[in-house]
Amino acid sequence: MLHEITLTVNGDQYAIAVRSHQTLLQVLREELGITSPKRGCENGECGACTVLMDGLPVNSCMVLAPEADGTVIETAEGLSVDGNLHPLQQAFIDHNAVQCGFCTPGMLMSSKALLDRSPHPSEDEIRYALVGNLCRCTGYVRIVAAVAAVAERE
Amino acid sequence: MQPFDYYRPKTFAEAFELLTRPDRTAVAIAGGTDVIPQTRDGIRRPDLVVDIKGLPGIRDLVVTSMAPCCGTGPDECLYVGAAVRMNEIARSNIVQDHWPILADAAASVGSEQIRNRATIGGNICTASPAADSAPALYVLDASVLIKGPRGEDRCLPITQFFTGPKRNALKRGEIVAGLLIPRPPAGTLSYHEKLSRRKAGDLSIVSVAVMAFVSAGNTAWRVALGAVGPTPVRAPESEAILAKRHDAEAIDRAAASAYGCCNPIGDIRSGLEYRQAMVVNLTRKAIRAVVAQLPQA
Amino acid sequence: MPTSTPNPVGKSVPRVDAFDKVTGSAKFVDDMAFGPGLLYGKLVYSPIAHGLIKKIDVTEALALPGVKAVVTGQDSPTPLGLYLKDRFVFAHDRVRYVGDSVAGVIAISEEIAERAAALVHVEYKELPPVFDPYEGAQPGAPLIHPDLGSYEVVNFIFPKPGTNISEHFKLRKGDVETAWAQCADVVEDTYTLPQIQHAPIETHIAVARWDPSGEVTLWAASQSPFAQRDILAQSLGVPHGNMRVISPYVGGGFGGKAGISIEANVVLMAKAVRGHPVKVRMTREEEFLSTNVRQSLIANYKIGCDAEGNLLAMEATYYFGGGAYNDYGVNIARAAGYSCTGPYDVPNVKGDSYCVYTNRPIGSAMRGFGMPEIHWGIEQIMDQLAAHIGMDPVEFRRRNCVRTGDTILTGMTMPQVDLPTCIDKVTAAIGWDHESKPSAPNKARGKGIAIMWKAPAMPPNPGSSAIVRFNEDATLNVYVGAQEIGQGAFTVAAQMAAEALGVPYEWVRVSANPVDTKYSPYEWQTVASRITWSMGNAVKAAAEDAKGKILDTVAAYWNEDPEDLDIKNGVVVSYKSEREQALKNMVIYGLPNENFEGWQGGPVVGSGKFMPTYVTGLDPETGQGTRAVVHYTVGAQAVDLEVNNDTGAIEILKIASAYDVGKAINPDLVMTQIEGGAVHGMSSAFEELRFDDKGHPINGSFVDYKIATSMDAPRVIHGDIVEMPLEDGPWGARGVGEHVMVQTAPAIANALYNATGVRFKDLPLSAEKVFLALHPEGVELSCELPEPGSSAD
User: Fold this and answer.
1) CA torsion C774→C776→C780→C786, rounded to 10°?
2) What subunits make at least 3 CB pairs under 8 angstroms with C?
3) I need a labelling partner for C406 at 20 to 30 A (CA). Which of B265, B274, C21, C381 fits?
């Protein structure tokens, strides 16, 4: 079944036709060419597909495409403003919070949502907010440090 | 995923019609955090998905005096619409202030991403014996407001809603509209814990909810456990023991009695022996945690 | 941030790939677009652990609209494999594990391919399975590879035809039998561990296109583009020059994307639909079901020392559960065999390391390559012996650990290593000498230490090569065939090129994304923690080659001796005349003679290679040889943990690590390896692939195969870098990417013993196991327990 939906992604409005059983992740990657949200498990476990939907981090693999009608979506591609990296992106670079990079877009979106909601989180809060984003490379040390550094600054 | 049709009805009548279409396999979806993985894995094979999030009142989280089906009891209820998300419950000031054990239970679900989609209605409808919201709902004496296609609403105590592992009391076409949760008296103490293999983001091995409130010089207790049998359980014998005394020996007897209420199995998350031991230890810990908060006699 | 960093080796300069990865512009295979002609493939898997294929019926699958072709084992009769050719692309006549691929369906969409895969009907005759490697190695066990004797095998692997033993490595040094009699104390014990998986966040994925012209292109998430090209060319009969492998960034490898896994399947499927690219991506469930794993191990150790605590003798017997195909696993058993003493100086050694076929997923390279597996037991039995003679475990290790110049178990002289300093660093960092109190009355606290060694396990002649080429503005491109799998390979390549040339780090571009066998210089594989060392040497050589050419040109231009010239910060300088020449433009256009009467020089291109020339074979009966391996990296880890007496939960409070990397090319990247490795090592101690008694996986998803989350990782990870330079390392560097997780599990076990007095010999660890071991009588209660369910409603 086809649905005509409109959604805003990284500030751009889209009006597209989607099928009932597609997921938001598929729509972003395959219809809109937004590839930073990744397929990691497609079961809501790994968080590599995390996007912000109306400001809240969700696993885009678990949102049906028609459910995204009328929503505002943010992904890593939209984090920089006027060509300047978002403080979190810069912090990830500065703190070497990136290794293979596959979990990075999801980590950034979860981190941004945390700081939007709670600008000065404790280390416990940071770790708790990132529980749904699996990383096999970094051991999370630098990711937590990068988020904490941005939180401290603001 | 296999293809299916998707509808988002605006009225309950529309929803009932969709859910009862003959020759269709329909499923209601709220947060999708159970239905989507189940559909992807082929456990469910719907050809019709009914998104209930647009139904009137289904997202409400309000304190109400609606008491027709709360039975006797306080006339202030929390109404939680079926499609209210776990993070909304966990972060609501009202819930944190007056139904804190429900906030704790909601906060124990999965991850941030899951809690922003998973709903309390979905959690009880999936009816896993390990449902994260269940022990809290059990000690809170919650009721489930069910709307049906023939126009009859009914209200079921939560303890009657879970009928078996992954089985609930809904009849074909029925929809959970919301939960009605009486407000515990002022000064109620509570403790909730979920034990799992990892510190967070995991299903539970054993979960426990304990509540106590002092009224007319007596302390009333409520104890409930999850992941310990075909459905979550209340432990009325434990509650009776604690109502009389809550010294160390009574706590042990209450924990032993809770163990007697449970009929756990060994599964992929825990062997039987460990789960049984954790019923005792976790119940004991929860009771002690509440006792520690009691005003000195 | 400085915009110009001269002499970047030894500095923690920013990664070259971080910007792309944080902006989401870094592309992985799944992000690449192949146009509307792209077809999708799905593999069909065996549902049984062991059986003969009687019949494959693909008619129903082919009849489904949208299905283009179905490929089976009949379409590829040539066996393939890295060290032992024991596999077919699709199962030929026999399936050997639940998840063995028997067919591939190609269709116009993923959905249709998935539906069609379910319509491929295979008839099997079930055979008795073998799951335990010890049982599988006994005479009379059902044979998983009856034709083992006819398989092509490299000359340093020794399978036993007529058995399930695909490799038997023998180590005989000195005389253990006599030595036991001289020991003051002897301990013997058995340690086991199950199969676990790499679980990279990016699953295995490949796209292949077989052009009608005969050119074959494979895009894969791969640590081994050149090795894959080689294996594919050989097994599919395609000339190497026609076989092109392209690999962009890899979303985590850990060895799982080394060698060959699904790539051959995808190439064969592409052959059936010539001209169309075919994409196969493993779902997470398929990743767990079908792709490769770390082998299981049953290890028996016997060690003895004299009254002073000097190790005199050691006997090690390994039964590796190699899984259904051991083409890579045989080398793990071998590497374990020639390292079986662990990082210790032991004069008398008897080692037998067997790789055994089992009807389980394919045991293949996983971070550590046999070292985590064997150190699980070694580091614990050392503690056991130390306890027997009343010696502190740290003292025992200081006394017995291997040092530069020692003659190790293969008869090789140990190249430069500094393990004592590593031990000193971690014991200081963990506070070994003072007992830490538990944080609550219901907790127990303990500390443990473990040391390690590992050599790159490679054939004797693995080569690296590199090219350096300038641009007009004197920025330069470094070409390597090494892969960026997150470890920082591209960054250190840029650092080393800049250092060797004498230009700022920021002038260097790494031309390796993607690695493309058509354009990239040869690199054996990105495995074995060899890239900083081997690729580094090649990059250094290429940069020095380019520098030499520049200096020759400018020296001739100045009529000076090139020996008096150097390049500093991108400028050629003469120490003699103090003249200067900027690199800009001259590296392409050369230098004009006076009055433009002709030109000198021209485009500068440097090339370099590195291949070790000194590795010798080992005697098949004794494992002795002049030089078994290129070098060892050593390290130490100490763990401080608490155990919750009521739940058995283990809380790792702190991990302290120290590794001798020879020279830290980028110290902060070494630290990030230490941190990631500590958590990976910790997580691995709690992981297990579980199967039912028919061999079906029962925890094949992240729901029940749990890896460490941000909440599970220890809050404090301390790292120290030790630098005893390696003779033939670039600036003295040797690798560390695997070593950082090798000994974490036994360090935890040793700390658990310290905290609880219980020794855990069988992985995985779990709160459940710890609790049941601490409370063999059950929970402590002041009253009796009723029957379960006795008071249920």
Assistant:
1) 140
2) A, B
3) C381
What pLDDT digit, counting tens, does each position of A77-119 carry? 999 988 899 999 999 999 999 999 999 999 999 999 999 999 9
pLDDT band at residue C790 under the 50/70/90 scheme: confident
Q: Regarding beta strands B175-182 and B143-147, do their DSSP bridges make them parallel or antiparallel, or are they unpaired?
A: antiparallel
User: Is A29 in the same domain as A66?
Assistant: yes
Give the CATH number of the domain where residue A124 resides: 1.10.150.120
A44 to B113: CB separation less than 8 angstroms, yes or no: yes
What's the fold here for domain C296-458+617-774? Answer: Aldehyde Oxidoreductase; domain 4 (3.30.365)
- The β-bridge relationship of strands C508-511 and C476-480 is parallel
A59 touching chain B per CB within 8 A: yes
- Domain C18-26+462-610 and domain C296-458+617-774 have a common topology: yes
- Tell me the per-residue pLDDT of A13-64, one tens digit each, with 9 for 90 and over: 999 999 999 999 999 999 999 999 999 999 999 999 999 999 999 999 999 9
Of C783, C789, C790, the CB nearest to B253: C783
CA distance B14 to A153: 52
pLDDT bucket at B71, cuts 50 / 70 / 90: low
Q: How confident is the model at residue B66 (pLDDT cuts 50, 70, 90)?
A: low
Q: What predicted TM-score, i.e. pTM, was given to this entire model?
A: 0.97
CB contact under 8 Å between C782 and B237, yes or no, is no
The CATH class, in words, for B189-291 is alpha beta
Q: Which of C632, C565, C516 shows the shortest CA–CA distance to C248?
A: C516
Which chain C positions have a beta carbon within 8 Å of A89's beta carbon? 22-23
Instruction: Give the domain range for residue A24.
Output: 2-78
Angle among Cα C271, C204, A127 to the nearest 5 degrees reads 160
Asked if residues C456 and C463 have their Cβ atoms less than 8 Å apart, the reply is no
DSSP C261-296: SSHHHHHHHHHTTTTSEEEEE--HHHHHHHS-BBPE
pLDDT at residue C530 tops 60: yes
pLDDT classification of C588: cutoffs 50, 70, 90: very high
Show which of residues 761-780 on chain C sit within 8 Å of chain B, judged by CB atoms: 766-768, 771-772, 775, 778-779
Long-range contacts for B6-9 (Cβ within 8 Å, ≥24 apart)? B6/A1, B6/A3, B6/A20, B6/A21, B6/A64, B6/A66, B6/B49, B6/B51, B7/B48, B7/B49, B7/B50, B7/B51, B8/A66, B8/B50, B8/B51, B8/B53, B8/B54, B9/B50, B9/B51, B9/B52, B9/B54, B9/B55
Tally of domains within chain A = 2
Catalytic residue among C499, C675, C723, C738: C738
Supply the DSSP string of A61-112, one letter for each residue: GGSBGGGGTT-EEE-GGG-SBTTBPPHHHHHHHHTT--SS-SSHHHHHHHHH
Alpha helices, DSSP H, located in C559-608: 586-589
pLDDT 10s digits, C346-402? 999 999 999 999 999 999 999 999 999 999 999 999 999 999 999 999 999 999 999
Q: Is the pLDDT of residue B74 over 70?
A: no
CATH number assigned to the domain with residue range C18-26+462-610, chosen from the 4 options 3.30.70.270, 2.30.30.50, 3.30.365.10, 3.30.360.10:
3.30.365.10
3.90.1150.10, 3.20.20.70, 3.40.50.1360, 3.30.465.10: which CATH number matches B61-182?
Answer: 3.30.465.10
Residue B52 · residue B9 · CB < 8 Å:
yes
At the topology level, CATH places domain C32-127+204-281 in Aldehyde Oxidoreductase; domain 3 (3.90.1170)
Distance CA C97, CA C104 (A): 17
Is A19 an 8 Å CB contact of chain C? Answer: no
Q: Count of B–C CB contacts within 8 Å?
A: 92
